[in-house]
Write a structure and sequence with these properties.
Blueprint (H helix, E strand, L loop, with lengths): L1 H15 L2 E2 L22 E6 L7 E4 L5 E4 L3 E4 L5 H14 L8 E17 L5 E5 L5 H7 L12 E7 L2 E7 L1 H5 L13 E4 L5
Parallel strand pairs: 1-9, 6-10
Antiparallel strand pairs: 2-3, 2-6, 4-5, 6-7, 8-9, 8-10
Length: 197
């Protein structure tokens, strides 16, 4: 009986708290990326196993396409890296260019995707997202903290499955090497609150 009551108590507490600390409750790898599709301006690497001529960096054009050797122009806007990989493998196979194409895609820069940094930073605004971008880099892009910033309550707001989630990031802990940086995702909003005296 006590175990059931304790379990219900834990569930209620977890539902009541909209803020979580990433190093204790939620990890970046556990949060689903809401939109990893590519768009105009995005830069990505294509690697085809054993085929240097078919590997390289490509940028999505303003029309949402890319020009690829042997295949020609392909529409890649609104596709995920996984979908582009499948599409290229299919076209290389259908065109009889390769018998067993093995393609990998790595996005280098999401120019079509942005993150925003607001609050107590020197240059608040929106910035182009790139794979592996962390909170510390985003704050640096925004000119760093103002003297009034409360770095231990920096908040990342993220939409996960249509629900807004606020994640507290203790940036001073990251700066001191006591915590790992928190990886951002396209569409994230980083907010640095003001210190209360």
């Amino acid at each position: 009986m006590f175990n059931k009551i304790f379990l219900i108590f834990l569930i209620l507490i977890s539902c009541a708290s909209p803020e979580v600390k990433p190093n204790k409750t939620i990890h970046e790898k556990d949060v689903v990326l809401s939109d990893s599709t590519l768009g105009p301006g995005d830069l990505f690497d294509i690697r085809v196993y054993g085929e240097k001529e078919l590997s390289g960096q490509f940028r999505v054009s303003s029309e949402g396409t890319m020009d690829y050797p042997l295949i020609g122009t392909i529409k890649v806007a609104d596709l995920t890296p996984s979908q582009i990989k499948t599409l290229l493998e299919k076209k290389l196979l259908e065109g009889e260019f390769l018998k067993n194409p093995q393609v990998s895609i790595l996005v280098k820069e999401y120019s079509s995707k942005k993150i925003s940094v607001l609050g107590e930073v020197n240059k608040p605004g929106s910035f182009s997202y790139h794979d592996g971008m962390g909170v510390v880099e985003a704050i640096s892009l925004a000119g760093g903290f103002t003297p009034m910033a409360r770095s231990d309550k920096t908040t990342v707001t993220r939409i996960v499955d249509g629900q807004k989630q606020n994640i507290i990031i203790e940036v001073h802990e990251i700066s001191q090497g006591n915590a790992v940086d928190f990886n951002l995702r396209p569409g994230d909003l980083v907010f640095v609150p003001e210190r209360v005296f």
